[in-house]
Amino acid sequence: MKAPLDIKDLQLIRPIRGAGTLNFSVEPGSAVVVVGRNGTGKSTLLQTLAGLLPARSGGVYWKGQNVHQMSPEERAGCSALVASTPPRSSAMTVRDVVELGLRAGGRLSGQSHVLSIMDEAGISQWANRSLNELSDGMAQRVMMARAAAQGEDMLLLDEPTAFLDVVGRREMLSQMGQWCATGRILWLATHDLEGAEAAGWVTHWLHLESSAERLGTFRCGPFVASEARAALMES
Amino acid sequence: MTSQRLWTGILVSCVFLLFGLGLFSGPADLGWGEQWSALIGNEGVAGTILWRLRLPRLCMAALSGAALAMSGLLMQTYFRNALAGPSVLGVTSGATLGVALVSLGGWAVGVTWGWTSAVLGALLGAWAVMLMLGAVVGWFRSRTALLIFGLMVGYLTGAMVTVLQAGAEAQALQAFVVWGMGSFGQATWSGVGVLFLIFSLASVWTFQRASMLDMWTLGRLTARSMGVNEKRLTWGVLGTTGAMAGLVTAWCGPVAFLGLATPHLVRIVLPTARHRSLLVPVMLTGSALALISDLAVRFAGIPLNAVLSMLGAPVVLWLLLKRKTVGENG
């Protein structure tokens, strides 16, 4: 039984003016979609949850343990982050990247494991191609597979579909649904509100507000998608 | 894997062949039998030539080549910059300034401590540049800025060395200029020993972190999310490459291009980017190139850095032509 993620009185280090405090408990199999305008702290939130950025106050607890007090290896075993920009310069092959993901998560059990992950993500046809030969969209799909190979319990995805075409985006969103169905916690920061809404697996919405007096304030609930859309339209 | 094993085998044979060629050939007119018995028994003039001159020189060349090549690979990975290398990023310049301060600036601690002071000077100089690189690397948005940083460090240390040269005594100046051309000929067993020790430690450290270096190529944030301890990796890479480049510079002079060009030559033939597979071939190729260059120095009389520049500059030009945005590729 996977224990939930607990966020207690969390304040982010950015944006500086934002004083939003987040209290949130997330059960296994949940999908939290983080929306908000640029500069409201979406990436900061995901990196803080991953333990890669310090919190200004409060804490993130994974199975009762503060993520900021875990070792980098321990953190890598429970959560994996996908950055918004895929690596453009690495000459690692797709197979190498997936293998490294399994290794980082401490779950590498052989080449057949690597192959099954690549099959699942639909990237085995590129197995021997280098990342720097792939397009941004293709590279991002590889990075998603790497994260799935690594993070057994939680995936933090920072605008991962920005580089994908319409079909790729739809495929990726349906794959995210499958990850949730296997009991993973999913955090997705995105501007693609319609896509996330249509995917049908979102359990929580989190809106980071952008108005000057409430910058970075957290708003949770089912109303958020429409509210966020209104805020985006307004601007 | 097979091509990697094949190439490793070829490279090991090359290094042994070149080592043997360097050991049993030279201006001294020695017969084969005489050389062999001198090598076994370390007797007579032949024994002195082999054991005091040729062997330490060849060991120093092989070790320096491997150490510089590994430094080049580590720096190219760490800075994600195809043009990174100890001589490009100003590490060698820093070491040169350290040696100049000791040998020309009279900071040497007594006469008998000459070499030790030069080694310490070179190490401190290399580490100082590495510290600066470590401190500023986060600020550089573009890869080109890093190369310009190295270039400027080179100009600055060059200017300081010129000032020291202007005020130096003729004898010290001559020794410094000759040292600056680069040579493996000044090697001593103690130098070989120290370099071997540091090189071994650095190799063990690097092999243990081969996967982390692989992850690092995927980007800083991704690597950190994969469990890479950024601080430890940074200081480990900067410390080991600084130590190796500094030590080689102290004994052999500022050796150009070997660190930059060798990893690329290996990448041409080996279809892998994994550090576990690249490290040994890169070290062996560095050794082989250093031994070939040393043979050219001994038999054609060309200074080491001239040989290496003729070898290395075309590689860099080829890289520029192959990838138009070389600064952005890694």
Write a brief caption for the model:
Chain A has 235 residues and is of the alpha/beta class. Chain A has eight helices and ten strands. Chain A has a single domain (5-234), classed as 3-Layer(aba) Sandwich (Rossmann fold), CATH 3.40.50.300.
Q: How is this structure best described in words?
A:
The complex is a heterodimer of chains A (235) and B (330). Chain A has 235 residues and is of the alpha/beta class. Chain A has a single domain, classed as Rossmann fold. Helix content of chain A is 37%, strand content 20%. In chain A, the strands form two sheets. A six-stranded mixed β-sheet of chain A has the order 6-7-8-3-9-10, with helices on both faces. Chain A has a four-stranded antiparallel β-sheet with strand order 2-1-4-5, with no helix packed on it. In chain A, strand 4 and strand 5 form a beta hairpin. The longest helix of chain A has 16 residues. Chain A is globular, with a radius of gyration of 17 Å. The relative contact order of chain A is 0.20. Chain B is mostly helical. The C terminus of chain B is likely disordered. Chain B contains 14 helices and no strands. Helices cover 76% and strands 0% of the residues of chain B. Chain B is globular. Chain B has one domain: ABC transporter involved in vitamin B12 uptake, BtuC. Chains A and B meet through helix 2, strand 6, helix 3 and helix 5 of A and helix 9 and helix 10 of B.
Average predicted confidence as pLDDT of chain A:
85
Helical residues, percent of chain B: over 70%
Rg of chain B to the nearest angstrom? 20 Å
- Per CATH, the class of chain B reads Mainly Alpha
Helical percent range of chain A? 25-40%
